[in-house]
Amino acid sequence: MKLKILPPTLRTNYRYLVLDIKSEVFISKNDLVSAVWGASLHLYGELETSNFSLWVMRFFDLNHEKKNQFNHIEDKNDFRYYKAVLRCQRNFEEKVRGSLTMLHKYKGHKIAINTIGKSGTVKSAVNKFITC
Length: 132
Known about the structure:
- It is a single chain.
- Helix content is 37%, strand content 30%.
- The protein is of the alpha+beta class.
- It contains 4 helices and 5 strands; from the N terminus they run E-H-E-H-E-H-E-E-H.
- It has a 5-stranded antiparallel beta sheet.
- It starts with 13 loop residues before the first strand and ends with a helix.
- The chain has a single domain, classed as Alpha-Beta Plaits, CATH 3.30.70.3250.
């Protein structure tokens, strides 16, 4: 027997938030997932956070581009720059953004996460906000 696919009216609708991340130390995609989930759990608890359906879809490390662009500039407070596309369920975007603003330290190091924009698909999020 063939499995039936859910009709579009019953599927979960997602929105994609594009994040601008600045960190003191190197972070990986898994570190970002852990930090985002930790901030959401801390602010809203397990029950509300489970409704968010959070996941990092794309993760871009911009540090090699910044080094080549500003090769002559040396700064002692050098930060590492990243961009990411974060998936969340529709109608929970503002709560996710609120939990991200509460995140300012991860594993004892400073981290700053700003939301650049929101989109309905991953492709349009990358085209609009990441590749300029």
